[in-house]
């Protein structure tokens, strides 16, 4: 699996011929496109589009969306994605760390967690605390500034070298606990 960061809350995840795009900011083609808040019309023609809570199965990718609170009390969808043996959790523009019991019970065995880190969503300390509580193998921050990125890394207490892309297989995550991976914006 190859994960690349395209700024703000936008990621592209590819495995073989299959690709997913999360919160595209511009035209990006993918088999599956997910939006956590309002749909950006530029990605409208990009494969199967998911823009809210529910359960979906597309091309052996299983997706569950859960309602949560984004900035200014707007609707946000948290997605759990099971893809190629990996469990991904994408928090989107989550602004309220108090998740529903249903959501918390569903978020288990997370391999890779994508969390927002900004003044509009979760501040670095809150984002790190929530991320660690969900017990992922890897945490990938998004929607950060240089300042909030540095604070988030400091919360984790480790030195992190930014990567161009994150190439990962399930076996690569064995023994990892809440490791922070920073991706450079493409």
Overview of the structural elements:
The two termini are 17 Å apart. This protein has helices at 101-106, 124-133, 146-156; strands spanning 2-5, 11-15, 18-22, 32-34, 48-50, 54-58, 61-69, 75-83, 86-90, 112-116, 138-142, 166-167, 179-180. By secondary structure, it is of the alpha/beta class. The longest helix is centred in the last third of the chain and has 11 residues, at 146-156. The chain is built from three helices and 13 strands; from the N terminus they run E-E-E-E-E-E-E-E-E-H-E-H-E-H-E-E. The strands form two sheets. Strands 6-7-8-9-10-11-13 form a seven-stranded mixed beta sheet, covered by helices on one side. Helix 2 packs across helix 3. 37% of the residues are buried.
Task: Describe, in short, the structure shown.
By secondary structure, the protein is of the alpha/beta class. It contains 3 helices and 13 strands; from the N terminus they run βββββββββαβαβαββ. β8 and β9 form a beta hairpin.
Q: Helix coverage percent of residues? A: 10-25%
Strand content range: 25-35%
Please state the oligomeric state of the protein chains shown.
single chain
CATH topology: Metallo-beta-lactamase, Chain A
């Amino acid at each position: 699996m190859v994960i690349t960061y395209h700024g703000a809350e936008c990621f592209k995840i590819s495995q073989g011929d299959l690709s997913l795009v999360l919160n595209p900011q511009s035209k990006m083609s993918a088999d599956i496109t997910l939006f956590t808040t309002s749909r950006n019309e530029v990605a409208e023609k990009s494969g199967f589009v998911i823009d809210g809570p529910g359960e979906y199965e597309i091309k052996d990718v299983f997706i569950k969306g859960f309602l949560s609170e984004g900035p200014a009390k707007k609707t946000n969808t948290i997605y759990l994605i099971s893809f190629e043996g990996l469990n991904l959790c994408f928090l989107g523009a989550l602004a309220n760390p108090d998740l529903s019991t249903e959501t918390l019970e569903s978020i288990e065995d997370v391999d890779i967690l994508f969390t927002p880190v900004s003044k509009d969503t979760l501040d670095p300390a809150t984002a790190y605390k929530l991320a660690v509580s969900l017990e992922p193998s890897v945490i990938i921050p998004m929607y950060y500034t240089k300042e909030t990125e540095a604070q988030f890394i400091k919360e984790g207490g480790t030195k992190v070298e930014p990567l161009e892309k994150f190439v990962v297989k399930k076996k690569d995550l064995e023994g990892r606990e809440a490791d922070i991976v920073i991706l450079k914006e493409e």
